[in-house]
Amino acid sequence: MSFTEEVGIDLGTANVLIYVDGKGIVLQEPSVVAVNKDTKEILAIGSEAKRMIGRTPGNIAAIRPLREGVISDYDITERMLQYFIRKTCGGSRIFKPRLIVCVPSGVTEVEKRAVREAALQAGGRSVFLIEEPVAAAIGAGVDITGPEGVMIIDIGGGTTDIAVISMGGIVTSASVKLAGDTFDECIVKYIRKKYRLFIGERTAEQLKKEIGAAFYGETPRKTLCKGRDLVSGLPRTVEVTSAEILEALEEPIDGICEAVHSVLERTPPELAADVGESGIVITGGGAHLRGLERRIQRKTGIRTRIAPDADFCVAKGTGESLKYIDMLRKNSLNRRETYI
Ligand SMILES: Nc1ncnc2c1ncn2[C@@H]1O[C@H](COP(=O)(O)OP(=O)(O)OP(=O)(O)O)[C@@H](O)[C@H]1O
After folding, report:
1. Residue 224 phi/psi, 5° resolution?
2. What is the overall mean pLDDT for the chain?
3. 136 is in an annotated binding site
4. What integer pLDDT is reported at residue 138 of this predicted model?
5. Is 159 in the pocket of ligand 1 (CB under 6 A)?
6. Treating both helix axes as pointing N-terminal to C-terminal, what angle do 201-211 and 180-195 enclose, rounded to 10 degrees?
7. Which of 52, 105, 192, 223 lies most in the core, judged by the most C-beta atoms within 10 Å?
8. What pLDDT, on a 0 to 100 scale, did the predictor assign at position 220?
9. What atom of ligand 1 comes closest to residue 158's alpha carbon?
10. What is the pLDDT of residue 37?
11. Does ligand 1 have an atom closer than 6 angstroms to the CB of 306?
């Protein structure tokens, strides 16, 4: 049996992706764990556990152990990672791969330590951390080694990471807790307020993916939405349009555009001029929200494009980052002690 030597992990709020050099993405599962609340026994991990969200009986909880890009339940994260690593590395308990795990930019020392410890406990021989925007840029095929500034925006489930990168390091950045999960929450609130209808986060996510839009010029769409009437308590169906989803998402989308603007304002003029030339690249699952690139382009006046395979960029870049390890090690944002 051939064992995997080096493994890149996109430990995301919404999904965990594992990338192995030479093999590509070998695992993509939701970051969800179903636990029996009485016995603490883990009942399901990943896709199977996600199907249980909002449908579990009283004694079973479908937990998302990462929130807003960082670990909120350490033990569950460790066990989830352990399960995914074993699944990827041939189930060997003796062989330990070298792990490269991404973290949002601006993560605190405590948060970094939590990720590193969880990865080591989960079976890593050594752990190297890389910032999400750097990984996203590598995965998107953007050359990060040159002196020219490039801007990358990674829109995930918990955070949107925005960064201007030059010579392999982050020059200016922002990590805002406005991303896919916030979009879903805003849709839940909007439908409740407008239609007095209660819907769960999975239904909201479905609406966002099917008919969501971030720009008024997008082709209008509509769909039926099922929920529970807040007054009668009975199931009810309403028709929802893309214009309504756009209205629901106005605030977080505006917040993301503002954050992009502020990063550009803080960027040294030469590098900002480079970004104006080379354009902005968006990655992450949230990049698929229709018209988001047009919205950012309108706000900044800079050509904005979605990276090919936007969902996989962070995982791919995390796995491929070993090519740049010397440069990344020298970078002050990657302290020596992160490389154990
Ligand atoms: N077609 C789509 N339209 C809008 N949003 C989408 C679409 N497809 C996926 N998403 C959203 O992308 C988000 C997940 O993206 P991704 O897998 O990049 O996040 P993550 O890496 O787990 O999160 P984070 O980086 O914040 O830790 C979810 O909120 C999901 O609903």
Report:
1. -90, 145
2. 90
3. no
4. 94
5. yes
6. 100
7. 105
8. 95
9. 26
10. 86
11. no
| pLDDT at position 109 | 87
How close is the Cα of 308 to the center of ligand 1, in Å?
Answer: 15
Q: How far is the CA of 92 from the centre of ligand 1 (A)?
A: 31
Q: Are the C-beta atoms of residues 61 and 51 closer than 8 Å to each other?
A: no
Ligand 1 pocket check for 284: Cβ under 6 Å? yes
Q: Which domains does the chain have, with CATH numbers?
A: 6-134+316-338 (3.30.420.40), 145-306 (3.30.420.40)
- Which amino acid, 15? N
pLDDT along the chain (340 residues), means of 10: 72 92 90 90 92 78 88 90 84 73 85 88 88 94 92 95 92 94 98 97 96 92 97 97 97 97 97 96 97 96 97 93 72 45
- Cβ within 8 Å of residue 42, ≥6 positions away: 33, 34, 35, 36, 76, 79
Q: How far apart are CA 331 and CA 314, in angstroms?
A: 19
pTM here? 0.90
Look at residue 246 in the predicted model and tell me its pLDDT. Answer: 97
| HEC assignment per residue over 161-178 | EEEEEECCEEEEEEEECC
Closest CA to 283 of 251, 252, 318, 258: 318
pLDDT attached to residue 328: 63
**How far is Cα of residue 159 from the mean position of the Cα atoms in its chain?**
6
